[in-house]
# Entry
Amino acid sequence: MTKSCDACRYNEFPEILYTLSDDKYTYVLCPNCLTPFVAHGLHSNLWKVLIKKFPDSFNLHDDFYDDEGNALQPAWDIHYHIPPWVPKG
# Structure
């Protein structure tokens, strides 16, 4: 089975996916999603995808994101392209 990014579902190059774990979950993320995930600066569309899969994740909770998935206090400015296949809203 081919792995893909939990956020954007990227799987063109599965050898460059990163796996991160916390107390509850294991996340598989591509390079495009890894940095904003760690910085608590995900685009709201990506946050919405992840919050459905990991509903009580510390990394996605309301100290970092509002109810719509907007980053409240990202660790640094995040600039990246949202792939067209990522669900909107």
Summary: The chain is about 20% helix and 10% strand.
